[in-house]
Prior knowledge:
Family: Belongs to the ABC-2 integral membrane protein family.
Membrane topology: Multi-pass membrane protein
Domain ABC transmembrane type-2: 28-260
Largest sheet: none
Number of helices: 13
Radius of gyration: 19 Å
Structural class: mainly alpha
Oligomer: single chain
Keywords: Antibiotic resistance, Cell membrane, Membrane, Transmembrane, Transmembrane helix, Transport
Transmembrane segments: 27-47, 59-82, 103-132, 138-159, 235-254
Number of domains: 1
Amino acid sequence: MSTTNATVLIDSWTMTRRELAHWQRQPVQVVIGLIFPVMLLLMFGYLMGAGRGIEGEYISFLVPGMLALTMVFGLEATMLAVTQDLGKGVIDRFRSMPMAPSAVLVGRSVADMFQSALSLVVMIGVGFALGWRWDGGVAALLGAVGLLLLLRFAMLWLGIHLAMLAGKPELVTAVQILVWPIGFFSNAFATPQSMPDWLGAAVEWNPLSATAAAVRDLAGVPGQLSGSWAAEHTYLLAVAWPVVLIALFFPLAVRRFRRLSH
Length: 262
């Protein structure tokens, strides 16, 4: 490992510890972030869930979809932290230190991934409490968690880039709305086959839908395949979509950050 890479890793871990220390001072924000997806699961599972086109128990179909949805939503805290650091001049102090410029963003993203992993543990536990069962084995479960966290990492860098385009903390909520179509125009709550043909085709190509479908398959949920190319290559898309998003928005976010912090 080169000296430069080692410096970036050390600086990034230092910034990660800084963000994790904020959890101790703002525990309510962390708790709300964990409870909100649970509320969505209960709401769609028992208050609004129709289960159109679903084979078997709806909860078996819904929980993997909600796990994927949790990885897409809840980016506001990270987006706000980035814009607040820029607005309060914190970045100016960091620039005076011998620190890699990308370490601030990487540290923030790693801290977010810790919370995302914790959210997955909570959601899986709630799913089991509601009667959901995993029939795919331990290796399949680890693979599913890996795909879910990969999706989160991709959405995280998309969110960070959008936050810096917004520039101000008060605009973050408005920018977050741009992410909503990815969450709601998906197969999280219903099968594409139960939708109009044009909508179902678009839903199958949604990055969230690919991850949700792959997780359902790993969990042993009865197949909901439509015979389309996207439906038959969910694993490929579940990896390809996040990789493409990361390859696109990671360098854009870092470049934007360097420009705004000078």
